[in-house]
Design a protein that fits this description.
It contains five helices and nine strands. It has about 160 residues and is an alpha+beta fold. The chain has a single domain, classed as Roll (Pnp Oxidase, Chain A). β6 and β7 form a beta hairpin. The structure holds flavin mononucleotide. Flavin mononucleotide binds next to β2, β4, α2 and α3.
Amino acid sequence: MNTENISMNPFKSFLGDWALVSAGNEEKSNTMTIGWGALGGMWGVDAAFVVIRYSRYTKEFVDANDYFSVAFFDGECKDALMTCGRTSGRDTDKWAASGLTPAYANGVPYPAEAKRVFICRKMAAMDMPRESFIDDTIYDKWYSDDDMHVMYIGEVVDVIEK
Ligand SMILES: Cc1cc2nc3c(=O)[nH]c(=O)nc-3n(C[C@H](O)[C@H](O)[C@H](O)COP(=O)(O)O)c2cc1C
């Protein structure tokens, strides 16, 4: 599948339904819940934007690999997503803890239970320096502990839909 036939509301899909970002390989992978992100176009290609804080174990997997996946559940599996958003892969096998099944697309991990998965090729990892915040209340509200997000922009190279 490609993105042409996709029908979804990205506003609801991120903030309301949440998604999972997964990265790694068939030997070792990790997944985490995200509520923030975007889908659209960038640099002339279909793109997914996700933001991952420095403290997340998942960041190490995304940094170490050329691809990551973004998986949507259309409001289902919320308990599993809560588990993946409250525990860390540093001390928990989140696939086992959440009951989700890791599947692989050309070696890129994603949850088999997802309704829709975007396989993304990393194009950029962008820091958010303090001086880039025009609305200072955002910085004060979300980054008082200095645990900044990195914005990963990935080209959507494959779409898996149930
Ligand atoms: C609903 C929800 C949404 C979340 N959204 C994000 C997000 O967009 N970016 C982020 O860095 N962390 C987000 N988190 C927090 C991570 O999922 C959480 O810290 C997770 O335990 C990280 O796991 P890891 O250490 O295995 O990577 C969210 C958590 C929840 C419950």
